[in-house]
Write a structure and sequence with these properties.
Blueprint lengths: L2 E6 L3 H10 L4 E6 L2 H13 L3 E6 L5 H12 L3 E7 L10 H20 L7 E5 L3 H4 L5 H9 L19 H24 L4 E7 L5 H7 L4 H10 L8 H12 L10 E4 L3 H7 L4 H4 L1
Parallel strand pairs: 1-2, 1-4, 2-3, 4-5, 5-6, 6-7
Amino acid sequence: MTQVTVVVGSGSIGQAIARRVSFGKHVVLADLRIENAKAAAATLRDAGFAANAAVVDVSSRDAVLKLVETATALGDITGMIHAAGVSPSQAPIEAILKVDLYGTAVLLEEFGNVIAPGGVGVVIASQSGHRLGALSVEQDTALATTPVDQLLSLPMLQPDQITDTLHAYQLAKRANALRVKAEANHWAMRGGRVNSISPGIIHTPLANDELNGPRGEGYRRMLRLSPAGRGGTPDEVAALAALIMGPDGTFITGSDFLIDGGVTASYFYGVLAPAASG
């Protein structure tokens, strides 16, 4: 039976991970914009991979189910890479919550229903989820376990509770890691694993929007003063994903991996800490 890797979000990070973990497998590259998915599929085919394109709107359960149907028709789904999303400079609060938070929860649930034994998923979260202040135990549990179609009705996600698009993004990415932790139990029922990766600023078109957007100076300062002193590359994220998705990572599930060049460490305990600059 053909093994299938599904990549949701056909950008730089999704492609880089797919190239590391999909040798001998069929890759389905899904994106909101079919032209992006087709271009990514063509790039992979030119590199020797079997690949095709699909369209998906992760904020629609029906669209996700159609993607699942397309992928399962090709073979056993042994990998799911979720790298789609919108950033604080790209979308309003409502869209960030619907795509980044609700959409991720839908993907985890639906692919958890079909993942093949031994299959593994990875969700690209963000360092932003680590910089959000501590939530209560009750709030963490709600983000992790509330039935998917009730998630956006949680009191903490209502407009009067969210200050701006960055706050919405931080909540969504915190929820991604929490949701992965809970969904690992669901995936395990089929013999699958799932983890999340929280990258810092990785040089992609999305990151470039942020670096050149209204918060650009803050992000450039973040890179300059971080322990690594630079942004990351999609291939560095892919190297981590290959570890946790491959044979050396079979004891790893329900975990989140921060890969940000030390930005979060500096934010809490170094020169980027608010107290250090105040």
